[in-house]
Amino acid sequence: MKNIVIAFALVLFTACGSDDAPKDYTAENDQEIQKYITDNNLTAQKSSSGLYYVIDTPGTGSQPTSTDNVTVAYKGYFTNGSVFDENPTFSTNLRNVIKGWTEGITYFKEGGSGILLIPSSLGYGNNGRSSIPGGAVLVFDIELISVN
After folding, report:
1. Which domains are delineated in the chain?
2. If pLDDT is split at 50, 70 and 90, which confidence band does 121 have?
3. Whole-structure pTM value
4. Which of 65, 68, 101, 112 is the most buried if burial means most Cβ atoms within 10 Å?
5. For residue 15, how far is the Cα from the chain centroid?
């Protein structure tokens, strides 16, 4: 009986170890984004959340809020250039997308275009999603077609 209690205690302490804490990708993501910006000769702004964005064309129409419905054209890829998604006309509510989009799309006006460089904390986090691994930096070429 004593051996069972000791074995159970070892399993319990091992399972509760500090290795279970999620990895913080903040510094790693920031370095990756800054390298991408330098390598691609971009002029990017950084928001207080850690999102980087490039406005290529500011646009002249309405500017959305974080709760608006929008239609965008986009291409999503990793910093190595590998494309994971692309859509020429995607309509959505900005409350239903990743945090990087909810914030980033609001920097554009209708007709505007540019790039969002999204750290994992504003994307799919440590868990990832489908073909997007946990901790991944996401890059989106964005054109804001309309605020609906």
Report:
1. 23-147 (3.10.50.40)
2. very high
3. 0.85
4. 101
5. 31
With 0-12 / 13-18 / 19 or more C-beta atoms within 10 angstroms meaning exposed / middle / buried, residue 125 is middle
What are the Cα distances from residue 147, in Å, to 55, 63, 64, 115?
A: 17, 7, 6, 18
> Amino acid identity of 146?
S
Q: Identify the residue whose tokens are 């991408």.
A: 36
Could you read off the pLDDT of 80-120 as tens digits, one per residue?
A: 999 999 999 999 999 999 999 999 999 999 999 999 999 99
Report d(CA 141, CA 114) in Å as an integer.
6
Secondary structure (H, E, C), 24-37: CCHHHHHHHHHHHH
- The answer to whether 134 touches 126, Cβ cutoff 8 Å, is yes
Q: What is d(CA 124, CA 59) in angstroms, rounded to the nearest whole number?
A: 28
Rounded Cα gap, residues 89 and 74, in angstroms: 8
Q: Residue 1: how many CA atoms within 13 Å on its side-chain side?
A: 0
